[in-house]
Amino acid sequence: MFALETLSKRYDTGVLALDGVNAEIAPGEFVALLGPSGCGKSTLLRLLAGLEAPSAGRVAWDGHTGAPAPGEIGFVFQDATLLPWASAAENVYLPLKLRHVARREAAPKIAAALAQVGLSEFAGTRPKGLSGGMRMRVSIARALVSEPILLLMDEPFAALDEFTRHKLQDDLLALWARTGKTIVFVTHSIYEAAYLANRILVMSPRPGRVAADLQARLPQGPHRRASGEYVALVERITACFREIMPT
Description:
36% of the residues lie in helices and 23% in strands. The protein is an alpha/beta fold.
């Protein structure tokens, strides 16, 4: 789907966030970008989305350099960032509205996106009437409404309680299995990366580089988190961090 070729990013402040990142991501993969705070994970996600430009190297999107076409990428931020005065449906409609898609044409897409995250009954509810987990579901639906082929997620569950986070992790796995979308998911949780992704890119402390590229093959179903494969993967990732973190 896309390749990162010796990608680097230095900010105007002089901070080198990323240095020489190389990776390829294939269609249908669920990739976790895992690393300590400040290692450039979110910066890398913004470069993938075309929200920022690299200082060196390039992102080759589907064989060409440059920003993807409108609607090809859905982005879920750390906060739900919903319009407080708008209903869930109106918040989901926003990306289509900005592309001047008529409300009548957008209606079935909005309904389908809300259905995918289990919020059909709350289409008319404003954010203040929704729980934190439900607000994040609306944010995910908003990213899905354009029917993107790539979904970028920047620590979307970090601020949620553990019970809600586990539920949304399971829902995201089900959505990935159902749709086959390519997902790149930023997290600083070893346990979350191991549970969700089928491939984990472990990033070094700043400046961020890909320190390890791990494949994950965990069983499906309710016992995934208790499986021996999951425990072994957590141990492999932990061992990687022991090697790359400063003493």
